[in-house]
Specification:
The complex is a heterotrimer of chains A (442), B (333) and C (308). Chain A has two domains: 1-25 and 107-361, Rossmann fold (3-Layer(aba) Sandwich), CATH 3.40.50.11540; 373-441, no CATH class. Helices cover 29% and strands 20% of the residues of chain A. Chain A has 14 helices and 17 strands. Chain B has 333 residues and is mostly helical. Chain B has helices at residues 19-41, 43-67, 78-88, 96-109, 124-135, 137-141, 162-171, 176-179, 186-191, 203-215, 222-241, 249-254, 258-265, 276-296, 303-320, and strands at residues 5-7, 143-144, 158-159. The chains are: A alpha/beta (442), B mainly alpha (333), C alpha+beta (308). Chain B binds chain C through residues 4-9, and chain C through 116-123, 128, 132-133, 136. β1 of chain B pairs parallel with β2 (118-120) of chain C.
C-alpha cells in the first residue's frame, strides 16, 4: 500500500488529457495586462507610469509590506494604462497594461537554456533573489514564497517537501514540468534546502505519473538528500496539510502552519521558478499552464507570459469549442470559473479548463438526507452538512467552534453530495463571516 | 459565442451519486428478501408489498401536492423504500385497510409532518409499524405459517413467531431445551422458513442485501455489525448464565427482525447518526434495548421499539460525538 | 374494576398536587428580581424582534431603555415616535422624536437595462455570489437579484419583481429596521427620511465606474456627469467617485434634477404626473418616458394595488 493521507478524500475521474504533451512556448501576445494583486497579501504598488517604456524582466510594481510580492514586466513595450481590468477575482482590479514592442530584456537575465547545477550563494543572498524575483506559490495559492522561507524565530524546519502531486483532475502542467525540467526542479530544491537549512527534501508524486516518478528518482541520485515518494492517487493530496500527513505522518495543528510540524512545502513549479531566479536571474514572468477540456481540440501544456489574455491561450489550443459552458482558471475542484475571456494569466494560473455545456451546470438541489458522505470525505474531519446549515442560519459562534476555519475549501463535500447541495458555497461564506469576527476581536 | 458562459463557485465537477440512485440501490438490496418471502408466503407477500408501496407513494404524492403544496418528489424513491420496509414489517396476511392506515401514519405522521425527506427524526416505516402493532395487536401478531408459493392472502393459516413461542413457553414454565424442539431449526431460520413479518424471516437474503449495499457503498458496516454484535454479546452472556431460561445468541440474531432492523431499518440515513463513532454508540444502544425488551419485557421482540428509542437520541449523538478533527492531536516529530 | 379507576384518579391527583407544591417552592426560592418596568416597556414594543434598534430582541432593548439615563442612541424604528412616546411615559423621560425613514434600493438595473454577461449557477445567495464575482452583468456595483434582502425582511416589505429582477420596497410595510441594509452585500439599500405621501427622489445607482464604462454596462447608470449637481438649488447633491448622491435631509423634492439626468438614474416616486404643458408629460403619454421611470411607476402601482 502506497502512502497517502489517512482520513477522507475522493478520487474523481482524472481526465489528464494533456499528460504527455510537450510544453510549448506560447507566442508573445500584442498586449499584456498584469494585475497588481496576483498573490495573497497586499497588492503591489506600480513603479512605472503610463507612457513609460519597459523591458522584459524589469520591475514594474514593488511589493508593499512583507506579505506581498514584486511584479515584473514579462514583455518589452510601452505602458499604455494603469486601470481596472477584469481578473480571476471576478471583480475589476487595478492592472498595468503594456503594449508589446520589440523583444528587449534587461541585461542581468541569463536567457541561455543550459543547466547550471552548482551554486555558491549564502542563504541571505538566495532569499534576497527569491524576494526580488517576485516568486509566489505556483500551485495556485500564490502565497509569497519568501514568507514561507523565512522561518519564524524559535521554529526549525526538518523537512522540505516538494509538491509534485497534482491531484486536481485534468491538470498536467506540473507533470509536464517534472518531465522536461526535472533537473532544474532538483537544483531548485537544493537551493530551497540550503535556505531552510534542512538535510532532507521529499518529493511527493502520485502514482498516476509513473514516468515522472521514475525520471525524478533517477535524476535525484545525483542530488544528496532528495528522495522521491510515490503516493496513492487521492484528492486533495496536493493540499499542504494532507501532503505532510501522507509523507511524514504529522498533522499540522488546527490554525497552524506546516512549520509548526517542522516542514515547509513548495510546489515543483515554485522550485523551478526558484532555480530560474537564483541561477538565471530571471524573475517570475512566465509560467507553465495546461489548457484542457474534453471538447478542446488540442489539450496542451504551454509556457505563457504572465498577463497574456486567456482568449489567446485558448486560441493556441485550438480555439473555444462550440459547446463551451464554463471556463475555469485552475482545476475543476478548486479552480475559479472566469467571467470574461480577457482575464489575464497570472502567477497562480495552473490551467485553463473548458467544461462543455451539460457538465457546466449544477444539478438540482435536493434535501439533505444525512447520508454522512460529506463527513466521510472531509479530509479535515469536519462536518460539512452542519457547517452549511449553521452558515445559513448565521450562527457564527457555533461555526467557529465547529472549526469552520480549518476548512481547506477542497470541495470534496460538494463533489460527493448525492443531494447536490452547495455545501462549500455556504461554508466559504461562513468562513468569510467568522474570519471578520475573529479579526475584529484583535 | 452566443450563449453566456456560466460562473459558479468551485467545485465544478461532481460525483455521480444521487438520492434516487441510493434509494433504488436500497430497493434492489431488499429484493432477495422479498423473493424469499414470496416463496414462503405466496400471494399474500406480493399483495401486501404492492399495497404498502402503493399507499405510501400515493400519500406522499397527495400530501406534497395538496396539503404542503410543495414540489412533488415521489420519483426519488424514498417513499417506495418506506413502503417496502413497512411491508417487510407486517404479516403477509394483513388486511388492506390496516396497511393503508399504516402507510398514512408512516408517511403522514412519521415523515411529512416534520418536513419530508431528511427532516424526520424517526424512521417512518417503523412509526407506521409500531402504530399498527399497538392499534391492531391481533392482526399484527397473527403471522401466517410458511406454506409455499400458493398460499392465499387473508385466508392463510396463522401461527406464532419463534420468539413468541419461546416467550409464551417460558411464561408457562417450560425450559428452553423443551421449547427449542417446537421452533424451527437453525437452517430453517437462516433461509427463512418460519412465521414472522414479511421481510424479517430471510436471514440469508437479508445478508445478501447487506453485502450488496456494502459493495455499492450505500451504507457502511458500522451499524449492522455493531448492532448484531451487541445483541449476540448480551444474549450470549444471559445464555451462559442460565441456558435454561435464555435462548442462545444465534437464535436471537436470526429471529424477530434483528437482521432486517440492523441492515435496513437502523441504517436509515436520516434517522441514524452522522459519524462512525456515533453510529457505534447508536447501534450498541439499539442492541441493548432490544435485549432488554426481549428478555425482561412483555413483548417477544423489541427491535422496532429499540430503533425508535435510539432514533430519539440521534440529535444528541450528532451534537456531541464529533469526528476526529485533522490536527487535533498534535504530533511533534 | 371501579377500584382500579378510583386508585388511578387518587394517585394521579396526589402526584399532581405534590408536583405543584414543589414547583411553587422552587419558583419562590429561585425568583430573580427584575424591574417590573422592563415588562411594561416590552409590552409597548412591537415584539418584532427584528434587531432594528441594534439589540438582539425587544426584551434586550427594553432592558437597555430602563437601565439607561437618557434615550440617546436608543430608538425603535419599527414602533417609531409613537412607541417611544409611550415608553417615555412609562419611564418618565423625554422622548426624542426622529424622522421616520424608509428603505430605498439604489439600483435600477433591471434586466432590460443591464444585459447579463454571465450566467450565475452557484448557491442562491447574494452574499456568496458577491464574495466571488462582481455579478453576472457588466456592472459590479449593482443588484444581484438573488434576494438576500427579501429573506431577511421580517415585515413583508420586500419582494422580488419577476420582470425587473430587482427587489421592490413596500413603503407601507417598511419599518426602516435596517435588516436589508445589513444583508445587501452591495450596500444598495439606504434608509431615507420619509417625506409626505411617501414621495422620494434619489439616485438609483451605485456604479463608481467612469461614465462611459458605466453607461455601456447599464443604460440607467449614473455616469457622474454632474448635471444634477449643477442644477440643484439646495446643495443637496454631492458628487463622489463618478456618482451623484442626493442627501434626503437637504433635498426639498423640487424635482429640478430629475429631467436633467441623461440616463434616468434619478428616480422620483409618489409625485402627481407633471402638468400637461410640460414636455415630459407629452413623452409619457407617447410612451417614450425613460424606461426607468416607467418601471418604477409600474412597480409603485403594483404596490398600491396590493394595498387595496
Amino acid at each position: 500500500m502506497l502512502k497517502t493521507f489517512a482520513k477522507g478524500g475522493i478520487h474523481p475521474p482524472e481526465n489528464k488529457l494533456s499528460a504527455h504533451v510537450t510544453i510549448l512556448d506560447l507566442p508573445v501576445p500584442k498586449t499584456v495586462s498584469i494585475p497588481l494583486s496576483q498573490h495573497l497579501g497586499v497588492p503591489a504598488v506600480p513603479v512605472v507610469d503610463k507612457g513609460d517604456a519597459v523591458k522584459a524582466g524589469q520591475l514594474i510594481a514593488k511589493s508593499e509590506g512583507f506579505v506581498s510580492s514584486n511584479i515584473h514586466s514579462p514583455v518589452s513595450g510601452k505602458v499604455v494604462k494603469i486601470d481596472k481590468v477584469p481578473d480571476t477575482s471576478g471583480y475589476k482590479k487595478n492592472a498595468i497594461v503594456i503594449e508589446v514592442e520589440g523583444d528587449e530584456w534587461i541585461e542581468t537575465v541569463d536567457r541561455n537554456g543550459d543547466l547550471i547545477n552548482t551554486f555558491d550563494y549564502s542563504r541571505e543572498e538566495i532569499l534576497k533573489k527569491i524576494l526580488e524575483a517576485g516568486i509566489v506559490g505556483m500551485g495556485g495559492a500564490t502565497f509569497p514564497s519568501h514568507v514561507k522561507l523565512t522561518i519564524p524565530r524559535g521554529k526549525k524546519a526538518n523537512y522540505l517537501i516538494i509538491n509534485g502531486v497534482e491531484c486536481e483532475p485534468y491538470l498536467t502542467a506540473d507533470h509536464a514540468l517534472m518531465m522536461q525540467k526535472g533537473e532544474e526542479i532538483l537544483v531548485g530544491t537544493m537551493i530551497l534546502k540550503k535556505v531552510l537549512d534542512v538535510d532532507k527534501a521529499l518529493i511527493g508524486i502520485e502514482r498516476n505519473k509513473p514516468d515522472a516518478i521514475e525520471h525524478l528518482t533517477r535524476l535525484s541520485e545525483k542530488y544528496p538528500g532528495i528522495e522521491v515518494y510515490p503516493l496513492q492517487e487521492k484528492y486533495p493530496q496536493g493540499g499542504e496539510k494532507q501532503l505532510i500527513k501522507a509523507l511524514i505522518n504529522r498533522e499540522v495543528p488546527s490554525g497552524g502552519l506546516p512549520i509548526d510540524v517542522g516542514t515547509v512545502v513548495h510546489n515543483v513549479g515554485t522550485a523551478f521558478a526558484v532555480y530560474e531566479a537564483v541561477q538565471k536571474n530571471k524573475p517570475l514572468i512566465e509560467r507553465v499552464l495546461t489548457v484542457t477540456g474534453k471538447s478542446i481540440s488540442k489539450p496542451s501544456n504551454f509556457r505563457v507570459k504572465i498577463g497574456t489574455p486567456i482568449s489567446d491561450v485558448i486560441e493556441a489550443a485550438g480555439g473555444l469549442p462550440e459547446d463551451t459552458g464554463k471556463i475555469i482558471s485552475g482545476g475543476p475542484m478548486m479552480g475559479k470559473a472566469i467571467n470574461d475571456l480577457s482575464v489575464p494569466v497570472t502567477k497562480g494560473s495552473s490551467g485553463i479548463l473548458i467544461l462543455p455545456e451539460p457538465e457546466a451546470k449544477r444539478k438540482k438541489i435536493d434535501p439533505c438526507i444525512r447520508c454522512s458522505r460529506c463527513i466521510n470525505v472531509c479530509p479535515m474531519g469536519l462536518e460539512p452538512y452542519l457547517l452549511m446549515s449553521l452558515s445559513q442560519k448565521n450562527l457564527f459562534e457555533r461555526l467557529e467552534n465547529e472549526k469552520v476555519m480549518d476548512c481547506i475549501e477542497c470541495g470534496s463535500c460538494s463533489y460527493t453530495c448525492p443531494s447536490n447541495r452547495p455545501l462549500l458555497d455556504y461554508i466559504r461564506l461562513g468562513k468569510v463571516n467568522v474570519g471578520k469576527i475573529i479579526r475584529s476581536r484583535k | 459565442m452566443s450563449k453566456l458562459i456560466t460562473i459558479s463557485p468551485s467545485p465544478h465537477v461532481f460525483g455521480s451519486q444521487s438520492v434516487g440512485r441510493l434509494m433504488y440501490g436500497v430497493i434492489l438490496a431488499l429484493v432477495p428478501a422479498l423473493l424469499v418471502s414470496v416463496f414462503f408466503y405466496g400471494m399474500g407477500a406480493i399483495i401486501v408489498t404492492l399495497l404498502s408501496i402503493g399507499f405510501c407513494v400515493l400519500f406522499e404524492f397527495l400530501i406534497q401536492k395538496f396539503i404542503l403544496k410543495t414540489e412533488v418528489r415521489i420519483s426519488d424513491g424514498s417513499a417506495m423504500v418506506t413502503g417496502l420496509l413497512l411491508a417487510f414489517n407486517v404479516p403477509s396476511n394483513l388486511p388492506w385497510w390496516i396497511i393503508m392506515i399504516g402507510a398514512l401514519i408512516a408517511i403522514g405522521v412519521g415523515k411529512m409532518t416534520f418536513g419530508g425527506l431528511g427532516n424526520n427524526p424517526f424512521n417512518p416505516a417503523l412509526v407506521g409499524r409500531v402504530f399498527l402493532l399497538i392499534s391492531f395487536p391481533v392482526q399484527m401478531t397473527s403471522y401466517p405459517v410458511p406454506g409455499g408459493l400458493n398460499t392465499g392472502y387473508v385466508d392463510a393459516v396463522t401461527g406464532a413467531t419463534p420468539l413468541g413461542i419461546i416467550k409464551e413457553g417460558l411464561k408457562s414454565g417450560l425450559s428452553i431445551s423443551d421449547l427449542m424442539k417446537e421452533v424451527p431449526g437453525y437452517l430453517d431460520l437462516f433461509i427463512g422458513k418460519m412465521g414472522g413479518s414479511l421481510g424479517e424471516i430471510a436471514a440469508a437474503a437479508l445478508i445478501l442485501g447487506f453485502l450488496f449495499m456494502l459493495f455499492r457503498k450505500i451504507i457502511t458496516w458500522h451499524i449492522p455489525v455493531t448492532m448484531v454484535g451487541t445483541i449476540a454479546l448480551f444474549t450470549g452472556i444471559l445464555w451462559l448464565i442460565n441456558p435454561d431460561k435464555n435462548a442462545d445468541p444465534l437464535f436471537h440474531v436470526l429471529t424477530g427482525g434483528v437482521l432486517l432492523g440492523a441492515i435496513f431499518m437502523a441504517t436509515d440515513y436520516v434517522t441514524s447518526p452522522m459519524t462512525p463513532k456515533g453510529m457505534i454508540i447508536y447501534s450498541i444502544g439499539i442492541g441493548a434495548i432490544t435485549v432488554i425488551i426481549r428478555v425482561f419485557g412483555s413483548y417477544p421482540e423489541g427491535v422496532s421499539f429499540a430503533i425508535l428509542i435510539m432514533n430519539g437520541f440521534v440529535p444528541l449523538i450528532n451534537r456531541y460525538i464529533k469526528p476526529k478533527r485533522f490536527g487535533e492531536e498534535v504530533k511533534h516529530g | 374494576m371501579s377500584s382500579v379507576v378510583l386508585f388511578t384518579i387518587v394517585s394521579l391527583s396526589v402526584l399532581g398536587v405534590l408536583s405543584a407544591i414543589i414547583l411553587f417552592f422552587v419558583a419562590q426560592k429561585f425568583k430573580v428580581f427584575e424591574d417590573p418596568r422592563i415588562d411594561q416597556v416590552e409590552e409597548n414594543l412591537p415584539a418584532a424582534n427584528c434587531g432594528g434598534c441594534g439589540f438582539a430582541g425587544c426584551r434586550n432593548f427594553a432592558e437597555a431603555l430602563v437601565k439607561s439615563e437618557s434615550f440617546d442612541g436608543l430608538y425603535c424604528p419599527v414602533g417609531g415616535n409613537e412607541t417611544m412616546e409611550k415608553v417615555a411615559q412609562i419611564l418618565g423621560r423625554e422622548a426624542v422624536a426622529q424622522d421616520p425613514k424608509v428603505a430605498v434600493l439604489r439600483c435600477n438595473g433591471a434586466c432590460d437595462f443591464r444585459p447579463k454577461t454571465n450566467q450565475y449557477d452557484g448557491a442562491s445567495s447574494c452574499a456568496i455570489e458577491s464574495a466571488l464575482y462582481g455579478g453576472d452583468t457588466g456592472c459590479q456595483y449593482g443588484c444581484l437579484g438573488l434576494g438576500d434582502c427579501v429573506d431577511v425582511c421580517n415585515f413583508d416589505a420586500l419582494h422580488m419583481d419577476p420582470v425587473t429582477g430587482l427587489p421592490v420596497v413596500n413603503d407601507t410595510n417598511c419599518t426602516a429596521c435596517g435588516a436589508c441594509v445589513d444583508a445587501c452585500p452591495k450596500d444598495l439599500f439606504e434608509l431615507r427620511k420619509r417625506a409626505k405621501k411617501d414621495r422620494k427622489i434619489y439616485v438609483a445607482c451605485r456604479n463608481e465606474d467612469k461614465g462611459g464604462i458605466a453607461r455601456k454596462n447599464c443604460e440607467v447608470a449614473c455616469t457622474g456627469c454632474t448635471k444634477c449637481f449643477k442644477v440643484c438649488p439646495y446643495e443637496a447633491i454631492t458628487m463622489n467617485n463618478n456618482l451623484a448622491f442626493i442627501d434626503a435631509d437637504k433635498c426639498k423634492l423640487c424635482r429640478k434634477c430629475v429631467p436633467e439626468c441623461p440616463t434616468n438614474a434619478i428616480i422620483e416616486i409618489g409625485f402627481p404626473p407633471p402638468k400637461i404643458k410640460e414636455p415630459a408629460d407629452v413623452e409619457a403619454t407617447d410612451g417614450k418616458t425613460g424606461p426607468a421611470e416607467t418601471i418604477m411607476k409600474e412597480s409603485k402601482e403594483s404596490i398600491n394595488n396590493k394595498e387595496e
